[in-house]
Amino acid sequence: MKASGFIPLIVLAMLAIVASNCLFVVREIDKAVLLTFGEVTSSDVAPGLHFKIPGMNSVRIFDGRLKTLDAPTESYLTSEKNYLEVDSYAKWRISNTALFYTATSGDEKIANNLLAQRINTGLRNEFGSRTKHEVVSGERDQLMTEITASLNKITKEQLGIEVVDVRVKKIELPEQVSGNVYTRMASERQQEAQQLRSTGREIAEGIRADADRQKIVIEAEAYRDAERSRGEGDALASTTYAAAYSKDPEFYEFTRSLNAYRETFANSGDLLVLSPDSEFFKYLKQSKAP
Question: Which domain holds residue 46?
Answer without folding.
Answer: 7-63
